[in-house]
Amino acid sequence: MTEPFRLPGLTRRHLLSRRTWRRRVVFWLGALIVGLLSVFFAEAANACQRLFGEAVARVGWLPIVATPAGFVLSAFLTRTVFKGAQGSGIPQAIAARTLRSSQDRRRLLSIRLVVGKIALTLLGLLTGASVGREGPTVQVGAGVMLEVAGWGGLRHERGLILAGSAAGIAAAFNTPLAGIVFAIEEMSRSFEQRTNGLVLYAVIIAGLVSLGLVGNYSYFGSTSDTATTALDWVLVVVCGVVGGLLGGAWSRLLLEGSRLLRRRAASLGRGLLLALACGLVVALIGLATDGATFGTGYAQARGAVEGGALGFLFWPAKFAATLVTAWSGIPGGIFAPSLAVGAGFGSWLGEAAGAHALGFVAVIGMAGYFAGVVQAPITAFVIILEMTGNNANVIPLMLAAVLGFGASKLVAPEPLYHGLAQAFIAEARKREKEADQAGG
């Protein structure tokens, strides 16, 4: 029987063991591939969004045709060729860690789904969907590391899935600390002594790849604004509470809407009609906002963090476009769009209140809203802290994230990603029950 996979200390026996070194090399290779794929995915996503923006600038009515068509094509391929690639990808990784059967895990995490997840997320960005590529990178990283387990005869698949997920977040956001925190708080909901080494090694290797290829940069720019007045601290509380309520409302709408639509659009034909309708709505919202709600929202969030005013219309429109895109079931993440909504909300609130430091309020808005959506406050403030590079805002970010988490629980008792993961777990258990009945 194959012994469990670990990264042991450098004792003489381990130093001379060919099997140990083979496992180490295979594991390191997997983490390296995750880092390379994350960088490729990021560059390709930026290129696809840029191409769509340039095309719309030349042909203003293009989204009316291209966006619904892209949604339908993506939904068709997801339902027929890449089953398991729908949505963010984080629920699939969570579900795979829960399932006991390797076969069930590989229905959610495989090289085929890695290819499909990347290709279909890029298709969404190429046709104006309000999606990000960070959540999909989690499924990509987890899928690669699970495949590595097969290459090297490695056991402890749950730990490798966790390591791949953390490496994906670290490389996608260029935030190594956030990758580790995400693995503990969101993916495993606990600190597991036996897997912490896997997570650290994977994050370090994937992070070094990202750092070497694209450099050390702040994902959403940077701001030197800090809380200096009583009004600033009042806005921290407001952004935390109201942002958390908004994030919780979005999370609940997605969960309950997805469950309803999954029943109503179970057939391929109805699923494609749903995608067509969602694509048309996203196109109309995008045209109404001069294209601001198409894609990830990176540019708008960066502008807000650096002190620009986004006005009132952007954040509710992005809120709606991201929700409708997620309802369609096409592959794509919600991390970046959610951060853009939070930045837009904070920017508008700061402008309406007459705050002198709009960049600071935008960052705090991101923390409150994002913590409300994902209900992972530590992950929220660590990601935003690393992405904006302003250590002076640690306490305000923590406060906004904690308030956002608490407010969100009032309207959304069920955590988003774990709620979405239940559909994949239920489907696997249904297959097991049917197999048992057939065998009996």
Structural class: mainly alpha
Q: From the 3D coordinates, which CATH architecture of the largest domain would you assign?
A: Orthogonal Bundle
Number of strands: 0
What share of the residues does DSSP label as strand, in percent? under 5%
User: Uncertain spans, ≥5 residues at pLDDT below 50?
Assistant: 1-5
Using the alpha-carbon principal axes, give the shape: globular
Radius of gyration: 21 Å
**Count of DSSP helices?**
19
Question: N-to-C terminal Cα separation, in Å?
Answer: 29 Å
Main β-sheet: number of strands, strand sense, barrel status? none
Total of domains: 2
CATH level-3 fold name of the largest domain: Clc chloride channel
The residue-averaged pLDDT reads 86
Order of helices and strands: HHHHHHHHHHHHHHHHHHH
In a few lines, what is going on in this structure?
The chain is an all-alpha fold.
Please characterize this protein's 3D structure.
The chain is an all-alpha fold and 440 residues long. It is 75% helix and 0% strand. Helix 8 runs parallel beside helix 10.
Helix and strand topology:
Layout: H1 12-15, H2 18-58, H3 62-80, H4 90-98, H5 102-108, H6 111-126, H7 134-152, H8 157-173, H9 176-187, H10 196-214, H11 230-264, H12 268-288, H13 298-305, H14 314-328, H15 335-353, H16 358-374, H17 377-388, H18 394-411, H19 416-439
Helix pairs in contact: 2-6, 2-7, 2-8, 2-10, 3-6, 3-12, 4-5, 4-8, 4-19, 6-7, 7-8, 8-9, 8-10, 9-10, 9-17, 11-14, 11-15, 11-16, 11-18, 12-14, 13-15, 14-15, 15-16, 16-17, 16-18, 17-18
